[in-house]
Amino acid sequence: MRWCLALLLSCLLAAVNALSSSGSRLLVVLDESTEKSAYSTLWSDLEGRGYDVSFESPKSDKLSLFQHGERAYDHLLILPPKSKGLGPNLTPKSILEFLNKDGNILLALSGKASTSSAVSSLLLEIDIHLSNDRSSVVVDHFNYDTVSAAEKHDVLLLQRPGPLRPDVKAFFDGEGILALPRVAPQTLGSDSALVAPILRAPATAYAYNPKEEMPSAEDIEGTGSQLNVVSAMQARNSARFTVLGSVEALEDQWFSASVKAPGGKKTPTVNREFAKQLTAWTFKETGVLKVGKIEHHLATEGEVATEDLNPKIYRIKNETVFSIEVSEYAYDKWVPFEVPGEDELQLEFTMLSPFHRLALEPTGRTETSTVYRAQFVTPDQHGIFSFRVNYKRPFLTNIEEKHEVTVRHFAHDEYPRSWAITGGWVWIAGLWSVIAGFLAFVLVWLYSAPVADKVKKTQ
Amino acid sequence: MPAKRHAASTTATPVPVAPATLSSGPPTLKTNASAAAIAQHVWEQYLANTPQRTLLLDAFMAFLVLVGGLQFLYCVLAGNYPFNAFLSGFSAAVGQFVLTASLRMQTSDSGSGSSSKPSSKGKNARFVDEDNQEQVSGTSHERAFADYIFGSLILHFFCINFIN
Question: Residue ranges of the OST48 N-terminal domain (chain A) (predicted)?
Answer without folding.
Answer: 25-282
